[in-house]
Amino acid sequence: MTNSTAGADPSVVGPYLARALDDAAWDDCQVVLIAGGKSNLTYRVDSAAGSVILRRPPLGHVLPTAHDMVREHTVMAALGGTAVPVPRMLHLCTDTEVLGQPFYVMERVEGHVCREDLPAGYADRPEQRRAIGEGLVTVLADLHSVDPARVGLGEFGRPAGYLERQVRRWTTQWDATRIEGHEDLDQLATDLAADVPTTQRHTVVHGDYRLDNTILHPTDPGRVAAVLDWEMSTLGDPLADLGILLGYWSQADDGGARTEALVVPAATVLPGFPTRAEVASLYAERTGLDLTPLPWYAAFAAYKLAVVCAGIVARAKGGAMVGDGFDGIEQRIAPLVEIGRTTLADRSV
């Protein structure tokens, strides 16, 4: 972790939480930025009252519809009573006079956030690693089985035309953060827009579902303790979530563009983790969805990741990113475009 408190001054956060959570013990608090996030900022707030997590948008310019704190708070509050594990929501602040942007506070969930490796002594055996993979798929399938209307999310999005809007949205996002030398993104966007598949089912979608956007149970590797980072969630096509999960899912035998495009180093290369094909098969078994059009979703995931990388580069150059870990992000864009175009052409993931 880093000791930066930019965006969440403890002299402001403490007194505010003391009022919002009705406990004066929050008045004197410590705030620590949790490193790793390249989009919204996540802080741990500690005081005599305990520990909570605070989420807010990045510093500086915020793109329209991006980094939506109200959206994250709404979906996690609604999913609290379902099979989908989410942190308990404690408070939402929409008053931008407090920290300059809306933010929310949630319970701190104990467990492991795993990226390029697993903690020492955790899931050492191949069968435990496979259990992690299966647990991730199970939770994703559980999310896609939630009836939005029954949990108060019936108006959370406009599911009809979701895929077409997604292509347009991310093309607009690219236009807003355009950086020189990556014009191939334009052709990939055109190819995707020309061949949008028919949605089989409308569900709540996470929008950025991957291993390191979850907290794994501290002692039971096969159990996901919480799913985090819901800023892109809406109602739409569930295969978009599977596509993005596969986009982040590295295998030990990957090479070429797959290795060069690695946005988030993934522990899934370790022995025991399911392959991308096995992940897709497990998901199909649990949901009954036809995965014939999956290559389009995988290609769209590559496009989306490329645009995300471009946005990170643009914000970093503008000084709006806090923390580290941004070196080499721009070099990921071209390989992601290659993966997208190849996946569409070969019709395989």
Any idea of the CATH class of the largest domain?
A: Alpha Beta
Give the SSE string: HEEEHEHEHHHEEEEHHHHH
**Low-confidence regions:** none
Taken from the alpha-carbon principal axes, the silhouette is globular
- As for the number of domains, it is 2
State the major sheet. 5 strands, antiparallel
- The count of helical stretches stands at 11
- Helical content stands at 25-40%
Q: Please, what is the oligomeric state?
A: single chain
Q: State Rg.
A: 20 Å
The N- and C-terminal alpha carbons lie at a distance of 36 Å
Give me the side-by-side strand order of the main sheet.
1-2-3-5-4
Mean pLDDT: 91
What's the total number of strands? 9
Percentage of β-strand residues: 5-15%
CATH superfamily of the largest domain: Aminoglycoside phosphotransferase (APH), C-terminal lobe
- The appropriate CATH architecture of the largest domain is Alpha-Beta Complex
Secondary structure category: alpha+beta
In CATH, the topology of the largest domain is named Aminoglycoside 3'-phosphotransferase, Chain: A, domain 2
